[in-house]
Amino acid sequence: MLKERSGSVADFGRSQGLFTQNGNRLIMNRSALLAFSAATLALSGCASIVDGTSQTLSVKTVANGQTLPGAQCALKSNKGTWFVNTPGTVTVHRSYDALNVKCTHAGYSPGVLAVKSATKGMAFGNILFGGLIGAGVDMSDGAAYNYPNLITVPMQPTPAPTSTTQANTSQPTS
């Protein structure tokens, strides 16, 4: 016979009909096992709970293969607009839509980039384990998507005025 102290989980389980005793073993009944499994699966698949709807990104600007510090960048999606100076980090709201990035720096042409989001693998698990409602929530609030953790924006120096351009602009026209 299985010896257990009074008030144990096994005593509670037996009194509620969750466990039966077979010799020296306690066996969970099928309906209790099914309920436990369903609860575990339902709580394990939701991207909103695991990662949330926000993501922290690093943004840097480069020119001629070198890091270009001090650019002012605006990141915009259907969920909002965020600002960061490079190199830096910013927390954005996840979305299916692309993140449009525009960086400016004195002496450089603006760097413009559209960063696509990707569907996270756990979003597909949510369809299997959390059902269509959980997947729909994660897709609508953006939790099912990720942007790259590092966004690198290329920038080009603005061309210096040439001597013929300066000569043409300094002469009066008649």
TrEMBL record:
What this protein is called in its record is Uncharacterized protein
